[in-house]
Specification:
The protein is mainly alpha-helical. Helix content is 62%, strand content 2%.
Length: 288
């Protein structure tokens, strides 16, 4: 729309579009969108870009919330079952029986979560992005589907971390005094829990890129910024796991080979679990 008489209609419309070159100043003031090239075909590109940005915001929110829900579950469940863990694994020093230290949580929130979440903003648009129906402007971002995904994926990450902690506490073949054996078991458990929580989140970021389609049917390498963020986070994580000085700062134990293999299996488990949910369309249930 270009004329002065179009101003009321532009103001009334959900999204009023005015011509930037031939449109009057009154029409431009009343419009929500001004087409600088006076080509309505530009609207299509603008809608696609807007949907891409909106989708990427949702991906980042889902990733961050599911990761943080996982951390909360780990700490909450560990507090509740601490007496049972002490009994099951023969730990007398109950106060030291915690799956994650404060420095571990701080590291995960600053490094593991932050970089991939920021890099999700550069994700390209899905192939079917323009085939979807418009989103109701009155509907919030926390749909039933979003809430379900955040909850079950948070439970998934938290459960895998707790399993790693339990496996570490049950590590056999440790020799020494009872106090030394307890100390080693707790540090192995904490190291495994920390490693699984941090690295599984880096793997999980591929799950949130497309809630409908399998990652094996999409191109997981079309966001170089995300790959770089994951690579940097993984490299930093591996560094503190292998450098002796950093291991001492983070209270990390050098894991036996068997425990390393168990960590690797748990780290990649989110891919398998979410793929099963996608296969049975549970991942997109209640998307409204």
């Amino acid at each position: 729309m270009t004329g002065v008489n179009d101003a009321p209609a532009l103001k009334k419309a959900d999204i009023g579009c005015a011509m930037g070159m031939v449109g009057t100043d009154v029409a431009k003031e009343a419009a929500d969108v001004i087409l600088t090239d006076d080509n309505f075909a530009t609207v299509v590109s603008a809608v696609e870009e807007g949907r891409r940005i909106y989708d990427n915001i949702l991906k980042a929110i889902q990733y961050l919330l599911s990761s943080n829900v996982g951390e909360i579950i780990v700490l909450f469940v560990a507090i509740l079952v601490t007496p049972l863990l002490a009994k099951w694994f023969g730990i007398s020093n109950i106060s030291a029986l915690e799956p994650l230290l404060p420095i571990h949580i701080l590291w995960i929130n600053l490094v593991t979560d932050a970089l991939p979440a920021l890099a999700l903003a550069f994700d390209p648009a899905n192939k079917d992005i323009m085939k979807r129906a418009p989103i109701d402007a009155k509907k919030g971002i926390f749909t039933k589907g979003m809430v379900r995904r955040v909850i079950y994926q948070g439970i998934m990450i938290g459960s895998l971390t707790l399993i790693a902690f339990f496996v570490g506490l049950s590590t056999p073949g440790i020799e020494g005094t009872p106090e030394y054996i307890e100390h080693v078991k707790i540090e192995i458990g904490q190291t495994m829990a920390f490693s699984v929580l941090a690295l599984s989140q880096l793997v999980h970021v591929f799950n949130v890129r497309d809630n409908k389609n399998s990652i094996f049917r999409t191109n997981p390498f079309n966001n170089k910024t995300l790959l770089g963020a994951i690579g940097i986070s993984a490299l930093l994580m591996i560094t503190i796991l292998v450098v002796p000085v950093l291991r001492q700062i983070f209270s990390i134990w050098a894991l036996p080979v068997e425990n390393i293999l168990e960590v690797i299996c748990l780290v990649f488990a989110p891919i398998v679990i979410v793929e099963i949910f996608k296969l049975f369309k549970i991942n997109t249930a209640k998307d409204e």
